[in-house]
Design goal:
By secondary structure, the chain is of the alpha+beta class. A hairpin with a 4-residue loop joins strand 1 and strand 2. The chain has a domain of 47 residues: Rhinovirus 14, subunit 4 (Irregular), CATH 4.10.80.400. Strands 2-1-3 form a 3-stranded mixed β-sheet, with no helix packed on it.
Length: 71
């Protein structure tokens, strides 16, 4: 292996737009993000389904029916 070709891999601070910070390891010392696990709607449970023209309801009606198979 060649010497001195690998980047320095050290502890990095991740800063989110919501104010949350945490430590990880990276080749850069500071990382800025827009969303994190503390503020992302999927992880916080605040995610909403946008129902455009009843598509979600039609999907639920279509696939909620029980399958009737003759044995």
């Amino acid at each position: 292996m060649k010497a001195d070709i690998h980047p320095q891999y050290a502890t990095a601070t991740v800063k989110c737009a919501c104010g949350n910070t945490f430590q990880t390891r990276s080749t850069v010392s500071e990382i800025h993000t827009d969303v994190c696990a503390q503020c992302h709607p999927f992880y916080t449970g605040k995610q909403r389904l946008l129902d455009t023209a009843g598509r979600v309801e039609r999907f639920r009606q279509k696939f909620s029916k029980k399958s009737t198979s003759a044995a």
